[in-house]
Amino acid sequence: MAFPDGFLWGAATAAYQIEGSPLADGAGASIWHRFCHTPGLVHGGDTGDVACDHYRRWPEDIALMRRLGLQSYRFSIAWGRVLPQGTGTANSAGLDFYERLVDQLLEAGIAPNATLYHWDLPAALDDRGGWLNRDSADWFAEYADLVFRRLDGRVKMWTTLNEPWVVMDGGYLSGALAPGHRNLFEAPIVAHNLLRAHGKAVQAYRASGAHRIGLVVNLEPKYPASDAPQDRVATRRAHAYMNRHFMDPVFRGRYDAVLVRMFGAAWPAFPASDLDLIRTPIDFLGINYYTRNVVRDDAGRFPLPVERPVQRGATYTETGWEVFPQGLLDTLNWVRTRYGNPPVYITENGAAFDDPPVAQGGAVHDALRTDYLRQHLRVLHRAIAEGCDLRGYYAWSLLDNLEWAHGYSKRFGLVHVDYRNQRRTLKDSGAWYARVIASNGQCL
Ligand SMILES: N#[N+]C[C@@H]1[C@@H](O)[C@H](O)[C@@H](O)[C@@H]2O[C@H]12
Hints:
The chain is an alpha/beta fold. It contains 15 helices and twelve strands.
């Protein structure tokens, strides 16, 4: 099942999850540095102080990318490395790091795909209110303009934000992620300022950039646990809260009425001009897809029903996610029909499984991960046949890495990392993915 000529094959990472050295060479601390160093918040007390030591081992990791035959590499830029205080004086050592990385990627024939914000807000900006402060959109645009002017042209594919829904829900409602707030009234303000920041960064790019810029969202299709009216209503609410929450403003210039009603008094009156900014046109949409959500009414839980009824006979990953490739097809067709079939990249797709240890001779026989990826790639081929404008795919992740509050307990990598000595070992899934890339999907 060959994919179209020019289909882009890649793998993805994020700065705080792999780089280590979070304060090196003048870098400013992020909210994740603070969060990890706050006892009790991250599994095992793990931090990003070392991670995969990518800040120092990046040449070795580019060699791994070449071995995989990656055509593109999606990474994120740590805001605090280039602007230690979040605004103001730039840190040339931080900019130099990303410039060297980009230049060597190009040297290796790998197209850089840079994400401006993958959750690591400079702590100095959090001290000024962070995403709760309306000025955050201007702070972000200043940072974006700085890196655009430094790297655009060599980087030809930019993303403003990674998964703004997770930033809002995890960082300000559930409190499971940095900065660890639990406040219903903060959530819509944060979501709105993230969207404003996205719009301002896109406008900054249009003023100076010459290539493409988009947004990466996590989309999780919602299915009612039964035909009972209360389950169908709960499913619509869950869909409004997670999926339409950011897609509707960006592509349709307005919020979902169901979402607004859900928040009730906690929903502020936003200026209409904000929605005009937010809907500034983008060049592509990045979709991170992992699983689906079967929804049963759980009236006691706002805004998302917490119960995820276990599906008999299904396979589940180490993060408790059902393996459900049909949900990826359903999601892509929903985006195609509701939002005018925008160019889409799958910017993350992968799974954590309890991988076997590295075998003698250096192999990791992670058959479950290979099967997960194969099932989802086959679905992508169907999505293209059904008319989705699907341009590329990035496996999550290149390396085992810091899985946020899970610490290093969950492994998503195509490459195993032994955190005791930083030894990298290509897993069977990585070797298989290299064959998929080399055959443009023919071997699926
Ligand atoms: N959990 N999980 C894996 C993966 C996470 O490691 C990424 O940083 C996020 O963009 C997205 O949540 C997905």
